[in-house]
Amino acid sequence: MIVGxxxxxxxxxxxxxxxxxxxxxxxxxxxxxxCTVSLNEGSVVFEQLGGITLLSTLYEHKIYIxxxxxxxxxxxxxxxxxxxxxxxxxxxxxPYLSRVEQRAGVRLAxxxxxxxxxxxxxxxxxxxxxxxxxxxxxVRSLTHDIKEINLDLIEPTEIKHRPGxxxxxxxxxxxxxVYRAYSISSATYEKNKVQLIVRLVPGGVxxxxxxxxxxxEEIMFTGPFGEFRLSEDPETDVVLVGGGAGMAPIANIIxxxxxxxPDRHVNFFFGVRSTHDIFYLDEFKKLAEKHKNFNVIxxxxxxxxxxxxxxxxxxxxxxxxxxxxxxxHKQQAFLCGPPPMIEAVTEVLKEKKxxxxxxxxxxx
Amino acid sequence: xNSTPVLVIFVASIFTNNIxxxxxxxxxxxxxxxxxxxxxxxxxxAVTFVMLFTTMINYLIYHYVLIPLKLEFLSxxxxxxxxxxxxxxxxxxxxxxxxKLYYALGIFLPLITVxxxxxxxxxxxxxxxxxxxxxxxxxLGSGIGWALAIALMAGLREKMxxxxxxxxxxxxGIVMLVTGIIAxxxxxxxxxxxxx
Lengths: 364, 196
Known about the structure:
The structure holds two protein chains of two kinds.
Chain A: H1 2-29, E1 34-39, E2 44-49, H2 54-60, E3 79-84, H3 99-103, E4 106-108, E5 118-121, E6 130-141, E7 146-155, E8 166-173, E9 176-183, E10 193-199, H4 205-211, E11 218-225, E12 237-243, H5 247-260, E13 266-272, H6 281-290, E14 294-300, E15 313-314, H7 317-324, E16 331-337, H8 339-351, E17 359-363
Parallel strand pairs in A: 1-5, 12-13, 12-16, 13-14, 14-15, 16-17
Antiparallel strand pairs in A: 1-2, 3-4, 3-5, 6-7, 6-11, 7-10, 8-9, 8-11
Helix pairs in contact in A: 7-8
Chain B: H1 6-14, H2 27-32, H3 37-66, H4 75-97, H5 99-105, H6 116-127, H7 132-160, H8 172-187
């Protein structure tokens, strides 16, 4: 009995001693003091207690750089240029950085820990990115696995974006929250709402979350992000190629264009498997009646079944493109769809005299 | 008390009684972290450091707390707790002063806690009835021995990158074979010293 009590006392005593030693060590070793974080040559400066990652301190200070994996170092989106004070490049970052990027000081913000004063450079427009709170206004099924989700902005009440940009939706799943990128499908002039087109990915955390929305829920997202740059010159033709949920940025581009340039030439190609996967076709046909320079081509890749009726193109979408698109130097292309489609279409576009810099794409 | 001279214990624990090659303790991190020399050196240094200090601390606790109170049966739990706390400390230390090594070692740094070689060193110290100086040099020697073995292995594996290893043996298979051969060569030292 006495031995038992003594044993417990000794064990507890030693454990407390060890814990106290560790706390002291942590105070001494893991204490980096207050560090200054300075962005874009001093346009944003704040103080930060050292020891945490750059990504979390940027988010704490409402600077939303893209990040899809939530800081695990597995997506490679949170690239920032560290001009000084980032420490050595870590083995966890090298797979995501090209040699040019490494030389320019690009780092993954989720891997860099703040240990001293640090100077960063991020693209100016990322400073404009905000966190939005929105209410689900309505959810509509477009096909068996694609839904259209309409969001009314609550706070801030307006969003300013370029056609083809995306937002990062905060989705809650069984294993915590994740950010996932979805293109904005509503046009840029609709400033109080954001529409998303979401395909259900089996086992996908965010698409499952979004497909389970019924309406009236509140959701959070950050944005806008994205490198799609539509030419402001109305003489430049636009080629849009999409498949499945790749409709989202394209619908945005189409409506935004015809709001500003009613006579601009736009050739829109959309690839789906079967007639069951077609959506928005009637809306676009109506738009094409109003705007003579708008061409809509839908193509089915699967052979027609007996109960299906279709008088449009069949086969993969790059074949339609090859057949119908006139070679022209002055045109821009925006592609959004699965990687094999993007690759095939890019080949065709190059044959049609498009320069690589004028081909923008989203692979998913 | 054990009457082996300190220097003999030190040399013996590096060569003749190498904790990895003769005792086959601490194999898991040895197998995984031995593909690059610099990582192997880093882990070897960390293990040596932890082994040296944990044998010293454990000696003091064992002889000045547990024996007087007749609580020797607590030695396992106390030893492992000391090791765990000390590894936490090393982790903080490495993260502060060598972030590159910190990320290169990854999960294997905290896993030093369950590296059986380290607990083994503390238990051998008790089993062989070493005094404080002997324990200290035994801990240091065993650590150096472990580091030597992993550095040897890493050097061989870097060279092995250029050789034509049969497909089925690639990875742990060939490493186990090579470890066995190195262990046999170390047996050549056995006649030199005898450790009890």
